[in-house]
């Protein structure tokens, strides 16, 4: 989708939301007003907000008719409930104390890390903008051994001008930076996420759902910490700012102010702490994904195709590999795991196998005209056949006649010293001896029919039975590492044929885009390797299960780890309107400093953190635009 289209859709959507809210409120549409009052719906330009207040606490009145327990039983129940409550409160207190430590560590750690990123980027830009200078390496250095062993130079003038003495020797006249010295950092720093630019449109639903879940989990941590420390929570809300969702917790300010500084630290750091735990949980789930999905996805029953690179010949939408295909074999090599997949590809690359085909059919399809194109020999031009036919080669031994040796007349016979034999002069001594030579012949055969025949090679030739037609071993007329590969699929009756390189990627340089597609059904001639096929070791156990379930689940877990970790770490920074601001305020208030110094330190720290974060974000946008 183009950027202009995305911006247009964004503006139209927000205009429609704002207009609908305005019209319904002006018209006093009662159902919408009740809904807005119940859920606190507020619509403003590029902002949508939902707010739910906490339910009132209900007071349960004891009825006089309630059975009165005896004193001993009530005492036991009270003791048991008190013991459980103390244990639960202790665990909760330890939980949030650890959260305070984690949030303070993140505050200092993120401040240092973001400052380091900023200094590194600014230093690189200054180095890049500074004009380069020639590398100065001082005067030429010669050791005493070189001086003594070298040939004496020719005699030179004894008088030398002062400006001609001690000229520096420039070893390398290329541009040289004395500070950077050619060392460049590969780290990219912050990368802003922009939907449709570096975030695929297909990922946006998962991205939004995960971002809302991470934000809600963050705010629920604040709410739980407040309730555990007897601080009143007025309500909870969710908002959408432009295209980015978020959440917030409304804590009663008076009760929060009455809490001790350490309890306030527990409340302010609870969101950061819970985001870190959510990221850790997502990290563990990601590595346990095959185990979690094992009831519907199996391992060891082949490999599933997750996707095919668009540059590959197997990416054809009609006859190529599709997401969800289950590969069971490559040629005669069985595929059960990803290790088998790569082993079979390696075997197909290294082994040069042919197929045993009826000799009569091969000879009938023999071509007398052939030409070489790219990495294959074409010999089907003289036949009226479909593009599913491929040129195959074979070696045959043919008779090679040698010139007969004639009998020379003997000298004794010419002089009459010996009797003449009956062999006339110039007659051949005997029948001409016959020698055999090996020639390569080409036949145009149907590729699918050939690959279904038995395998043969130099060490294992075709076996001819008496009751069957004679077989001959034919090989695909392909060169330079190009192979004809048969890919067997569990979910299709017919295999896919692939003609191409198995070890390197060769771009399709044809001027016509149509020539980059397969020439025949299920026969792919693109010079693309099978490594361009993305596979998964898991296969569906049931017909209604698709391998995309695994991809979506894995994608959601990846986003959960990334977004939850980023949300927790960035909230820990000492920046205005983030949790780090309130953590810094609480730490300074409990430091014992005078109010004036405390306010000064607070202003400096928050200003520094805000500037560092804003500059890192701006540099991230600039890098994204430049790249």
TrEMBL record:
Tell me, in one coarse class, where this protein mainly resides: membrane
Subcellular location(s) per record: Endomembrane system
What keywords sit in the KW lines? Answer: Membrane, Transmembrane, Transmembrane helix
Which catalysed reactions does the entry list for this protein?
Cleaves several transcription factors that are type-2 transmembrane proteins within membrane-spanning domains. Known substrates include sterol regulatory element-binding protein (SREBP) -1, SREBP-2 and forms of the transcriptional activator ATF6. SREBP-2 is cleaved at the site 477-DRSRILL-|-CVLTFLCLSFNPLTSLLQWGGA-505. The residues Asn-Pro, 11 residues distal to the site of cleavage in the membrane-spanning domain, are important for cleavage by S2P endopeptidase. Replacement of either of these residues does not prevent cleavage, but there is no cleavage if both of these residues are replaced
The question of whether Membrane is a record keyword is answered with: yes
Enzyme Commission number, as recorded = 3.4.24.85
Single GO cellular component annotation? endomembrane system
- Transmembrane stretches, start-end: 6-24, 92-114, 199-217, 224-247, 267-288, 556-579, 600-622
The first-level EC class reads hydrolase
Give the top-rank taxon of the lineage listed in the UniProt record for this protein: Eukaryota
Please list the GO biological process terms of this entry.
membrane protein intracellular domain proteolysis; regulation of response to endoplasmic reticulum stress
Q: According to its record, how does it sit in the membrane?
A: Multi-pass membrane protein
Q: Which GO terms describe its molecular function?
A: metalloendopeptidase activity
The protein's role, per its UniProt record? Zinc metalloprotease that mediates intramembrane proteolysis of proteins such as ATF6, ATF6B, SREBF1/SREBP1 and SREBF2/SREBP2. Catalyzes the second step in the proteolytic activation of the sterol regulatory element-binding proteins (SREBPs) SREBF1/SREBP1 and SREBF2/SREBP2: cleaves SREBPs within the first transmembrane segment, thereby releasing the N-terminal segment with a portion of the transmembrane segment attached. Mature N-terminal SREBP fragments shuttle to the nucleus and activate gene transcription.
The protein here is known as Membrane-bound transcription factor site-2 protease
Q: Which organism is it from?
A: Caenorhabditis remanei (Caenorhabditis vulgaris)
Taxonomic lineage: Eukaryota, Metazoa, Ecdysozoa, Nematoda, Chromadorea
């Amino acid at each position: 989708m183009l950027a202009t289209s995305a911006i247009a859709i964004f503006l139209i959507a927000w205009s429609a939301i704002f207009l609908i809210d305005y019209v319904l409120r002006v018209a006093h549409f009662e159902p919408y007003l009740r809904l807005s009052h119940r859920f606190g719906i507020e619509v403003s330009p590029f902002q949508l907000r939902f707010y739910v207040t906490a339910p009132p606490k209900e007071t349960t009145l004891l009825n006089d008719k309630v059975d009165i327990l005896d004193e001993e039983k009530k005492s036991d129940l009270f003791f048991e409930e008190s013991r459980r409550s103390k244990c639960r409160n202790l665990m909760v207190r330890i939980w949030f104390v650890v959260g305070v430590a984690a949030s303070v560590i993140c505050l200092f750690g993120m401040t240092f890390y973001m400052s380091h990123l900023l200094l590194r980027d600014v230093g690189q830009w200054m180095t890049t903008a500074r004009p380069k200078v020639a590398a100065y390496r001082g005067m030429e250095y010669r050791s005493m051994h070189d001086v003594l062993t070298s040939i004496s130079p020719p005699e030179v003038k004894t008088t030398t001008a002062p400006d001609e003495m001690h000229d520096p020797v420039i070893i390398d006249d290329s541009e040289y930076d004395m500070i950077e010295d050619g060392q460049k950092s590969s780290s990219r720093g912050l990368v802003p996420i922009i939907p449709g630019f570096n975030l695929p449109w297909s990922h946006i639903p998962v991205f939004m759902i995960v971002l809302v879940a991470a934000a809600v989990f963050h705010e629920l941590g604040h709410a739980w910490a407040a309730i555990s420390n007897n601080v009143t929570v007025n309500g909870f809300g969710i908002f959408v700012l432009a295209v980015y969702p978020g959440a917030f917790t409304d804590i009663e300010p008076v009760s929060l102010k009455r809490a001790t500084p350490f309890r306030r630290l527990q409340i302010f750091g609870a969101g950061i702490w819970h985001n870190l735990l959510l990221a850790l949980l997502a990290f563990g789930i990601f590595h346990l994904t095959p185990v979690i999905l094992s009831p519907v996805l199996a391992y060891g029953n082949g490999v599933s195709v997750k996707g095919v690179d668009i540059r590959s010949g197997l990416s054809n939408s009609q006859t190529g590999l599709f997401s969800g295909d289950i590969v069971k074999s490559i040629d005669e090599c069985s595929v059960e795991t990803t290790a088998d997949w790569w082993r079979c590809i390696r075997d197909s690359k290294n082994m040069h196998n042919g197929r045993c085909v009826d000799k009569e059919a091969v000879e009938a399809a023999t071509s007398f005209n052939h030409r070489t194109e790219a990495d294959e020999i074409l010999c089907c031009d003289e036949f009226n056949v479909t593009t599913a036919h491929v040129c195959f080669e074979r070696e045959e031994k043919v008779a090679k006649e040698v010139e007969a040796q004639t009998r020379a007349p003997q000298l004794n016979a010419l002089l009459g010293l010996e009797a003449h034999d009956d062999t006339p002069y110039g007659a051949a001594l005997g029948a001409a001896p016959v020698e055999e030579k090996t020639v390569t012949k080409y036949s145009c055969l149907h590729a699918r029919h050939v690959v279904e025949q038995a395998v043969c090679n130099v060490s294992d030739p075709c076996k001819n039975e008496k009751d069957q037609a004679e077989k001959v071993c034919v090989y695909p007329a392909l060169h330079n590492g190009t192979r004809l590969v048969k890919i067997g699929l569990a979910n299709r009756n017919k295999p896919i044929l692939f003609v191409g390189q198995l070890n390197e990627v060769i771009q399709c340089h044809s001027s016509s885009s149509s020539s980059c597609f397969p020439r025949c059904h299920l026969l792919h001639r693109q010079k693309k390797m099978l490594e361009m096929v993305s596979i998964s070791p898991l296969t569906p156990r049931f017909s209604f299960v698709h391998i995309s379930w695994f991809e979506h689940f894995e994608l959601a877990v990846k986003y959960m780890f990334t977004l939850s970790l980023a949300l927790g770490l960035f909230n820990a920074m000492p920046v205005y309107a983030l949790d780090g601001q309130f953590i810094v305020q609480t730490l300074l208030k409990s430091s014992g400093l005078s109010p004036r110094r405390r306010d000064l330190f607070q202003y400096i720290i928050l200003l520094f953190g805000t500037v560092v974060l804003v500059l890192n974000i701006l540099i991230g946008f600039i890098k994204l635009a430049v790249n």
